[in-house]
Amino acid sequence: MKITMIAGSNQRAATSTRLAEYIKHLATLEGHQVTLIDLYQTPLPFYSPDDANAGHEALEKLKEAMLEAEGIVLATPEYHSGISGVLKNALDHLGQDHFNNKVVLSVSSAGGAIAVSSLTQMQTIVRNLHGINCPDWLSIGGDQRKNFQTGVTYQDIHPDVEKRVRRVVGSFLDLAKQLTVKLR
Question: What is the percent of the chain where pLDDT is above 70?
Fold first, then answer.
């Protein structure tokens, strides 16, 4: 199955991006083909409804990966009770054809205990783009973020955090697989 992930931070060492990399690792171990688009490494132009950015290489790659995806993961830091501006900008470039009938897992990292506001905001955007929100979502906050800081290996992730991430990712992959089979 093809999974496209968007890591929506413009910070080099974002814990939300490291969490997305770990999710990619887990999905790859299960035999899935995963494309991770890191908006820090591949910034996009500002969205314009005038389509002034047609032909922009990074934008075209994003759109192609999203069209090919059978499942989608959106990862963001929580800034001021919302998703990052770079993720919102990326989503503004996309349309219903990129999300229609695809399962989407929302993932967030927050300085506080949990990132409910950004997760809720992502799920609202996904609904408006006709995607199917995974019933589970994934948020790390406070001390849990230490598991995804630069230099921490996957073997060093706290067992409780690892168990929760694996459960949520497994649930997402199972649902995406079931839906993909039914739509073929």
Answer: 96
